[in-house]
Specification:
Length: about 400
């Protein structure tokens, strides 16, 4: 079963666009897939108009798209292009929000003169967002859709129903093919508990030094990863985890003791070539399990103001911000987050694994995350970037 997010770009309700979308969704659900609809006009207008990607409702949509295997994008066409409300959301998505995903575009409009809007307006945007494959879409004439508002019934002209069936089947075929390839590529992922001095940890640490140095432009203990002793990640108070794929380290992270009941997450990272596959979310989940196995009841972490992707990741993963989400990130300094570990997670946690002992069966992981948040976990103090 695939996870599919559908986007309604219609600014009004009821609408022919959503009537067509409902038909497509029924076909997807009939094939056993999990479908989640996002009605863009229902998102907070202030967040869309002010490009507030950190707003919880917007972050939740970004996370849902990140977790999805496929996306269906629908829009009415008024002026030879997709709607402004849809553009507002697409502009908020991370640069490669659709990487690895199959996308089906569908449009409605009053005139055949707008039929090329799919290929010349919408498709280039979807490709620029990294879509694995934008399948053949379809333009449905308004005259082919009759909506019955009293009971949400829809009557589609025979030609429209037939062509929507064809493009939906094509979408599902490409989606199944890609999912099969993804399982083949990732079914040997193994989570290992290692020493931070181990060669398996080296790619993670080296890349974080480069990333932090680039973003913050200073050589400080934080950018050089020397702000805490490396021994903090050793048992029994800490843990250092990596995800290995066919012998290559592709993601990882660590925890250390923050206080007697709290672990601090550090060093979350994903290899640039393997982002948009859910690895950062999986690392967080594994670190939470490791924290429970070490007796911790909550998680604390901080990220820097120039790591918006990491901020979006933690919000999507249920971490509560201890700062004003609407304030200027640079004025805030360190962005602190906290999360209570639920009792059910504590009961389910595995016992600590020994060095180089797999802690999870092979698999694709626990869903995907927002784009470059796959890459970085935060240094603890922004102020120390520039001052001792």
């Amino acid at each position: 079963m695939a996870s599919i997010v559908t986007l309604s770009g219609s600014p009004s309700a009821p609408s022919r666009t959503e009537a067509v979308l409902g038909h497509v969704e029924r076909r997807l659900r009939a094939r056993g897939h999990d479908v989640t609809r996002v009605v863009v006009r229902d998102l907070p207008a202030d967040a869309l108009l002010h490009a507030d990607g950190a707003h919880p409702e917007v972050a939740a949509v970004v996370a849902a798209i990140a977790d999805a295997d496929g996306v269906v994008v629908t829009t009415p066409v008024y002026k030879a292009a997709y709607t402004g409300v849809l553009k507002a959301l697409l502009d908020l998505l991370p640069q490669y929000a659709l990487r690895g995903k199959t996308v089906l575009p569908v449009a409605t409009g009053g005139s055949p003169a707008h039929v090329l809007a799919l290929d010349y307006a919408l498709r280039p945007v979807l490709v620029s967002l990294g879509a694995e494959h934008v399948t053949q879409g379809w333009f449905v004439l308004a005259s082919e859709v009759t909506v019955y508002p009293q009971d949400a019934g829809v009557l589609l002209a025979e030609s429209a129903a037939r062509n929507l069936h064809l493009v939906t089947e094509s979408f599902l075929t490409h989606l199944a093919r890609h999912r099969s390839q993804l399982v083949t590529e990732t079914d040997d992922d193994v989570v290992l508990r290692v020493s931070p001095r181990d060669d398996a940890a080296a790619p993670l640490l080296e890349d974080l030094v480069v990333e932090y140095g680039t973003r913050y432009g200073l050589s400080t203990p934080n950018t050089q990863l020397t702000e805490v002793p490396i021994t903090d990640f050793d048992a029994p108070d800490g843990a250092f985890l990596v995800i290995s794929r066919a012998g290559q380290t592709v993601a990882g992270g660590a925890i250390r003791r923050y206080d007697d009941e709290t672990a601090e997450v550090k060093r979350v990272w994903t290899h640039a070539q393997f982002r948009r596959q859910g690895l950062a979310r999986r690392v967080l989940h594994e670190l939470e399990l490791a924290a429970v196995s070490l007796g911790y009841k909550r998680i604390h972490l901080t990220t820097g103001p120039r790591q918006p992707e990491a901020r979006a990741l933690y919000l999507a993963a249920g971490y509560l911000p201890a700062f004003d989400l609407h304030a200027d990130p640079e004025a805030i300094g360190p962005h602190a987050f906290d999360k209570e570990l639920p009792p059910s997670t504590r009961r389910a946690a595995a016992q600590p694994a020994g060095a180089h002992t797999p802690s999870l069966a092979a698999g694709a992981g626990a869903g995907t995350q927002v784009d470059a948040a796959d890459s970085i976990a935060p240094p603890p103090s922004y102020r120390s970037w520039g001052a001792a």
